[in-house]
Amino acid sequence: MKKTALSLSVLAALALGTASAQTTIKIASISPLSGGQSNLGTQIRNGVQLAVNEYAAQFKKAGFNLQLVPYDDQADPATGTAAARKIAADNQILAVVGTLNSGVAIPASAALAPSNLVMVSPANTANQVTDRGLANMNRIVARDDSQGPAGANFITDTLKAKKVYVLNDKTAYGEGLAGEVEKALKAKGVTISGNEGTEEKSDFSSIVAKIKLTKPDAIYFGGIYNQIGVFIKQLRGAGIDTPVVGGDGLDSSELPVIIGKAGANNVYYTTVAAPLEALPAAKTFAANFQKTFNTPAQGFGAFGYDAAKVTLQGILDAARANGGKAPSRKQVLDTIRKGTYKGLLSGEVSFNSVGDRKAATLYVIKLTDGKAALETSLAVKPPKN
Amino acid sequence: MELSVLLPFIVNVIIGGLVLGFVYAIIALGYTMVYGVLQLINFAHSEVFITGAVVGFEVFRILQNSAMNGYLKLLIALVAAMIVSGLLNVLIERLAYRPLRGAPRLVPLITAIGVSLILQDTLRFLEGLQGRFDLTYTLPTGFADKFCATTSSCAPLGNFLRTIGVDVQLKDVILVIVALVSLGLLNYVVNRTRLGKAIRAVSQDRVTAGLMGIDSNLMISATFLIGGALGGVSGVLFGMKFGTINAYSGFDPGIIAFTAAVLGGIGSIPGAVLGGLLLGVIQNLIGVTNIFGNLLGLANLGTIDASYSKIGPFIVLVLILIFKPTGLLGKSNVEKV
Q1: Structural element, H or E, at residue A219
Q2: In a domain, B4, yes or no
Q3: Lowest mean pLDDT among A1-5, B97-101, B254-258, B275-279
Q4: Residue in chain B lying closest to A207 (CA)
Q5: 3-class DSSP assignment, residue A356
Q6: Contact, A332 vs A338, CB < 8 A?
Q7: Cβ contact (<8 Å) for B244 and A205?
Q8: Does A230 contact B243 at a Cβ distance shorter than 8 Å?
Q9: Transmembrane segments in this chain: where (chain B) (predicted)?
Q10: How far apart are CA A260 and CA A255, in angstroms?
Q11: How far B287 CA sits from the closest chain A CA (Å)?
C-alpha cells in the first residue's frame, strides 16, 4: 500500500517535472490518523488539505507547486518524533502543522528545531509547548494556564456569583486550576465560602451537606469528569441546583452519562477545543469540508485549516520577501512568528515572542439536559507579550 | 448560625455516614469471616466486592429497556452478584490460598495482594473489550427520587422526615433495608443452622473439628462463598448508591472496610458491623469539622475539611489498637466465625 503510494507520487512528480519547471513546496501535517484518536487527527489532516487546495492556485501563480504530506503519529510521542525526523530530511517541506497531543508536540518540535522547520499547532494547550522558548513552535489555541482567570471571569461576569465554593481533586492539574480560580475570584472581591481538595471518588455527602449549609451562588471544581460527574449527581440528588463550573477536564461526552440526564443542567466548563458553531465564519468552510471529504467538519478541522492558512500565507510572504524565489526554512520560520494573519475562522492570529497566540479564545460550554452547547467565548491573553 | 439550620445539617451528615457505614459493614464481614476461619487477611476481597458491582452494572445495563419492575431488576442484580462474587471467592481460595495453607503467614498475604491486582486488571480488560472504563449504573426510574416524595402515597411520612431534616433518596432506604436483611440472614445461618455450627467449629479448632467428622475444607469453601456473596451484595449497593464505578473503585472502600473489621475486633461479626457504621459516621463528621471550627472560632479546626475525611478512620484505628488491641468487640479468645 505504502509502496504503491510512493511509486505513484514518484511518477506524478516525474510527470509534473517534465510538464513544468515549477519549484515544488511542501507542507507536512502530523496528527493521529490511526488508533483511538484518529477521528480528531483526521479532522486536522483534512482541514490542512482544504487550506492547501485553496492556496494551490496562488502558489501556482507565484511559480510554486504546492503539496501536502500527511504523517501519522498514532498519538504516540515516539512515532510523532520519528515522523518529525523524516519531515526534517525532506528539503522541500517548509512548514509543519501539528499535532493533536501536547505530549507529541513537545518532542516533535524539538526534533524539527535544529533544521529551523516551523511548526504551527492547531490543538496543543500544555504550557510547556511554548514555555521551552523554541523559535519554531507556535500555536493558535489558548494555553492551559489561561483557564483559571477565564473561569473566574465567567463566574463573576456571566453567573454574577458573589459567593463561590471551590473544590479540587488534589492533583497537580486540579489543585493548580482551582488555585488560579480562587486567586482571581478573591481579587474581584468574591467570597470563597469553602475551598477543599478531595480524592474521594464516590461519597461526597459531607461536601454536599456543607454546600447545602453555606448556600454558595456557584461551585468551581478543578478536576476530571469521572470524579466531578459523581459529585454533581449527588449534588443534584440532594436538590441543589447551584451552577457547577470546571475546566477542560470536564470536556468529555461521558460527563452527562455519569451525572444522568435529569441532573446534567447548569454545568459549565471552559475548553480550548471550539465546537464548530462557535466560529461564525465557518459556514462556507463546513460546506466545503463536507463536499470534499464527505464527512462533517468538527472544531479541530477548523483549527487545522486555520493553522495551515497561517503557514501557507507565511510561506507566500517569505517568498515575496525573498524576491519571488522559494524561501529558506529559516526565512519561513521568522516570517510566521512576526506575521499577522487576518480573516481566519477563529479570528486574527499573531504570535508573541514564544509562539503563543496573542489573542486566543476559550470557549465556555454549558450542559442542558445532558446536551453540550456553546455558552460564550472568552478572549484570553498569554502571560508573555 | 441558628440551631434550626445546624440541626438538620448534623442529622444529614450522620445519616449519610450511616448509609455509607452499612456498605462498609457488609464488606467488612467478608474480611472478618475469612480471618475467622483461616487467620488470613483476604486482600482480594475488595476486588470480589467490586466484581459484584460490575455484575450489578451489567444486569441493570442489559435490563435497562425492559419494562420489568425496578425492585425485581434489583433482586436479579443482587442474586447474580452474589453468585458470581461468591463463586469467585471460592475459586480464589481453592487456587491461591489452599495450596499455601501450610506456608508462613506472609506468603498467602502477598498472594492475596497479587490476586487483588490480577482481578483489577482482568475486570478492566473485560469491560475494556466493550470500550468501557467508567461504568455508570442505569437505575430503574424512581430510585433516585426523594424518599416518600410529595406525590407518593407515603407523602405524610416523607414530609415529617423532611421537617426534622432527614433528606434521603429512595435508594438510600433500599440500601439500608437490603443491608439489614443480609445481616439478619447471615446471623441466622451462622448461629442457627448446622452449617453455621460447623463453620464456627472449624474456626475454633480446625484439627479437632476434622476429628469430629467435619469436612474442614468444605467449611472453609462455604465461608468464602458466604463472604464473597456478601461482597457481591455490597458491590451492587455501592454501585447503586454512588452511580459510577470502575475496576479500581474497590480499593478505597475495601481498605476502610478492612479497618472497620479490625476496629470492631477482627473475627467478630457484630464487631465488623459496628466498626463499619462507626467509620462511616466518623469519616463524614471529620469531613465537616471545618464548619464547626469556623462556628466556634477555632481557626485550627477550620482547616480540617473533606480532604482529611479519609484519615479519620485510620486515626481511630490507631487509637483503638493502642488502648484496646483486640478491637471494640473482640475478646482475647475471639468468638470466631
Answers
A1: strand A218-222
A2: no
A3: A1-5
A4: B306
A5: coil
A6: no
A7: no
A8: yes
A9: 6-31, 43-64, 70-91, 173-190, 218-240, 255-278, 285-304, 310-330
A10: 8
A11: 6
pLDDT tens digits along B145-161: 888 877 777 888 888 88
B244 and A226 within 8 Å at the Cβ level: the answer is yes
Contact B337, B190 (CB under 8 A): yes
List, edge to edge, every strand of the sheet that includes A64-72. Answer: A64-72, A23-31, A93-98, A118-121, A137-139
Domain containing B184 equals 22-274
Q: What pLDDT score was predicted for residue A277?
A: 80
Task: Cis check for the bond before B259: say yes or no (omega within 30 of 0).
Answer: no
The ipTM assigned to this model is 0.89
| Residue listed under C-alpha cell 492533583 | A171
Contact flag B246-A226 (C-beta cutoff 8 Å): yes
Distance from C-alpha of A98 to C-alpha of A106, rounded to nearest angstrom: 11
Q: How many domains does chain B have?
A: 1
CATH class (in words) of the domain with range A2-142+278-351 = alpha beta
A258 part of contact set with chain B, CB < 8 Å: yes
A253 in reach of chain B (CB within 8 A): no
From the options 3.40.50.2300, 3.10.180.10, 3.40.50.720, 2.70.150.10, give the CATH code of A145-271+363-380: 3.40.50.2300
CB contact under 8 A, A209 and B144: no
Half-sphere exposure of A290 (CA within 13 A, CB side): 8
The secondary structure element, H or E, covering residue B289 is helix B289-296
User: Is B317 within the bounds of a domain?
Assistant: no
Residue B142 has what DSSP assignment?
T
Distance separating alpha carbons of residues B324 and B262, to the nearest angstrom: 11
Angle, helix B269-287 to helix B251-264, in steps of 10 degrees: 120
DSSP B89-113: HHHHIIIIIGGGTTS-THHHHHHHH
pLDDT tens per residue, range A122-149:
999 888 899 999 999 999 999 888 888 9
Which residues of B fall within a CB distance of 8 Å from A165?
none
Q: Cβ-count burial of B4 within 10 angstroms (0-12 exposed, 13-18 middle, 19+ buried)?
A: exposed
What dihedral angle (degrees, nearest 10) is formed by the CA atoms of B272, B274, B276, B280? -170
Instruction: Tell whether B117 is covered by a domain.
Output: yes
C-beta of residue A245 within 8 angstroms of C-beta of residue A269? yes
Kindly report the CATH number assigned to the domain that includes residue B137: 1.10.3470
Nearest neighbour of B16 by CB, restricted to A196, A205, A233:
A205
Whole-angstrom distance, CA of residue B3 vs CA of residue A180: 35
Residues 361-380 of A with CB under 8 A from B: none
Minimum distance, in Å, between the CA of residue B331 and any CA atom of chain A: 33
Phi, then psi, of A196 in degrees rounded to 5: -145, 155
A232 Cβ contact list (under 8 Å, min separation 6): A244, A259, A263, A264, A267
Q: Which residue of A has its CA nearest to B13?
A: A206
Q: What is the pLDDT of residue B294?
A: 73
Closest CA to B287 of A241, A194, A177: A194
Dihedrals phi, psi of A125, to nearest 5 degrees: -110, -15
Residue B331: what pLDDT?
66
**pLDDT attached to residue A21:** 59
CA dist A94 and B308 (Å) reads: 55
Element (H, E) at A51: helix A38-61
Instruction: Extract the C-alpha cell encoding B44.
Output: 482480594
| DSSP assignment string, B21-89 | HHHHHHHHHHHHHHHHHH----TTHHHHHHHHHHHHHHHHHHTTTS---HHHHHHHHHHHHHHHHHHHH
Q: Classify residue B325: in a domain, yes or no.
A: no
User: So what's the pLDDT on residue A99?
Assistant: 92
Cell of B323: 488502648
